[in-house]
Structures are given as structure tokens and as C-alpha cells.
Write a structure and sequence with these properties.
19% strand; 317 residues; alpha+beta; 10 strands; 4-stranded antiparallel β-sheet
Length: 317
């Protein structure tokens, strides 16, 4: 599934193929990839020249002259591929841009979870999908901000990092890989993280992103792991395989409906202090005392006997 590194590589490829080129043909099939728009709206890119491509997390914004724009989100199986104009279109192509250099660039998406959104560039730049995103971690991570964001949530580490408002572009793969590199239990409460641990996590996220870019960067479109591509990751999709660090079998758990892969030795289960759902961390003793105070007192044997015998009336007999 394309995440920040895969989308970054796609944006580099599109810049090489499209920048400075004029669109001489634009065609989109009627599918949910362009849901809410018309095919004619997509065809309006004809005659415009690409000026640049920006990446926002997993989103790409293509800017054309005349203020025209196109947002691309690859979804689960989307990818951009290039061919010569006279060559037949491959299967599962949902949209195509024909260029003035004799090439065509196709958007291919087998499962139709991707998006292509047409509009004016500045309107697209301030759209809800882009404006709601958190900072891009490839540009560097503000550790103090990340620490504050994690401290305010009641979710697990895995679920907190999957939220695109935390850091834009991280997905199931990069979150699993980053937590492994940082030696953090993915099921640990995010609010329990210390400033030092958050710094270690930020470093690990950067390392994981850079490693993936090095391993996957190519002038050719990426074949995703789910499509049978090479698995270059440390723990992702490696259930029951030995950890490359310690040899322990990698485990899989489901969090938020998504698979999480981790090493139980390198990422030991977090057993910290009990936390209140609405307040700060409490000590284990205080938490236990509160639980006892909330439980109704157990009846003594004598009281239970009296209840069975009929209460005070039984005692008078």
C-alpha cells in the first residue's frame, strides 16, 4: 500500500515525466476514482502545461498553467505509469494524460480506492483533505509538538501515529517499522510516552522513511508488497519470521482494524502505571485504592444467612 515513501517516489517520477510538458489529451473513465466530478472536468486539462508537483503526506498536487490543478491520492493500489502514446493501455487504467512528447501517463488502480480531484490549484491547496494534515515527517519532526500531541490522546501508539493529523504520510507499514526501530510497544498508551522516548521515536521515523526511499527508489513504478513485490521491511508482513535483530518470531496483532507487526523481545509489552481516562497518570497504589472504594462491600456470612432465613423476622423466631 502506498505511503509517504512510495508517494514521494511517484511524485519524483511524475516531475521527470510531466514538468514542462503540455497536455494534448486527457481522459478519465467513469469510476469512483473521480467520484463527484464529470469526465469533462478532467478533460479540461487539455492545453495546459504542468508547472510543478507538491506532495502533502500521501497526497500529490499537480499545478498547471492557468491556475488549473489536479490532486492525486493513490489509495491502496494506485500508481502512475508511462508508456508511448501508440502502445495499448494496460488493464485497470482509470485516467490518462497524453503529452506533447509522444508519451501518455496513465493512472492505474485495480481496487479503485484512489482519488483524482480536479479544480483550481489554490482552492485545492486549501481543501479540507490537505489543510487537515499534520506536518510532513520527511522534512523533520518537531519533537515538542509530537510529544504534546501524544500526551493529549487516549489511543495506543499505533493508532495515534496512524492519524494523519499527527504526522502526514505515515501508514500501516511505516508505523510498524518506526515503532520497531524505536523499540516501543505498539499497544502502549500514547499518553505514557516521555520526552526522551518521543525523541527516539522521531529519529526512528526518519530512519525508516529514508531507508524505504533508498530501497524502493527507481525510475520504474513500484510493485507493492501486496502485489508480490520484494519485502524490504524489518517487521511488516513478517509474521512468525525471525526478527533480524534478536531472532524472536515476529508477531501480528490487529489494532483499529489494521494489522500491526512487532517483535515481542525488542518491543516488550509496556507495563507502566495505571492511567485515568480523563486525567493524568496515577500511581498503581492510588488506582488500586480507587477501584476498591468503588466496589460494593461484600456481605458477611451472617448477613447472607439472615437474608436467606427472612431477615429480622427470622431472628425473632
Amino acid at each position: 500500500m502506498p505511503e509517504l515513501p512510495e508517494v514521494e517516489i511517484a511524485s519524483r517520477q511524475l516531475r521527470a515525466w510531466l514538468e514542462g510538458r503540455r497536455v494534448v489529451g486527457a481522459r478519465a473513465e467513469k469510476s469512483r476514482v473521480i467520484r463527484g466530478q464529470t469526465q469533462a472536468r478532467f478533460a479540461g486539462l487539455v492545453g495546459h502545461r504542468l508547472l510543478g508537483i507538491e506532495r502533502f503526506g500521501k497526497w500529490m498536487l499537480m499545478s498547471f498553467d492557468g491556475g488549473e490543478g489536479l490532486i492525486s491520492h493513490l489509495g491502496m493500489t494506485g500508481k502512475w505509469i508511462r508508456r508511448r502514446e501508440k502502445e495499448p493501455r494496460p488493464s485497470h487504467v482509470r485516467a490518462s494524460l497524453t503529452l506533447d512528447d509522444g508519451h501518455a501517463v496513465d493512472y492505474r488502480d485495480m481496487r479503485l480506492f484512489g482519488r483524482l480531484i480536479r479544480g483550481k490549484t489554490e482552492q485545492l491547496r486549501t481543501s479540507t483533505g490537505l489543510s487537515a494534515l499534520g506536518p510532513d515527517p520527511l522534512q523533520g519532526i518537531d519533537v515538542d509538538r509530537l510529544y504534546a500531541v501524544l500526551a493529549r490522546t487516549r489511543r495506543s501508539m499505533k493508532e495515534a501515529l496512524m492519524d494523519q493529523r499527527t504526522l502526514a504520510g505515515l501508514g500501516n507499514i511505516q508505523v510498524s517499522e518506526s515503532l520497531h526501530r524505536a523499540k516501543i510497544d505498539p499497544q502502549r498508551p500514547a499518553a505514557s510516552m516521555t520526552r526522551e522516548e518521543t525523541q527516539r521515536l522521531a529519529d526512528a521515523i526518519g530512519e525508516s522513511l529514508r531507508a524505504t526511499l533508498v530501497d524502493e527508489d527507481s525510475p520504474e513504478p513500484i510493485t507493492y508488497v501486496e502485489e508480490g513485490g520484494e519485502n524490504v521491511f524489518l517487521v511488516y508482513d513478517r509474521q512468525d519470521q525471525p526478527c533480524t535483530t534478536c531472532g524472536t518470531a515476529i508477531r501480528r496483532v490487529v489494532q483499529g482494524g489494521r494489522s500491526t507487526f512487532y517483535c515481542p523481545h525488542c518491543q516488550p509489552r509496556w507495563r507502566g502505571r495505571a492511567t485515568s481516562r480523563t486525567g493524568p497518570v496515577r500511581s498503581a497504589d492510588r488506582a488500586s485504592t480507587a477501584a476498591v472504594q468503588q466496589r460494593p462491600a461484600r456481605r458477611t456470612a451472617a448477613r447472607r444467612l439472615r437474608a436467606v432465613q427472612g431477615g429480622s423476622a427470622a431472628r425473632s423466631r
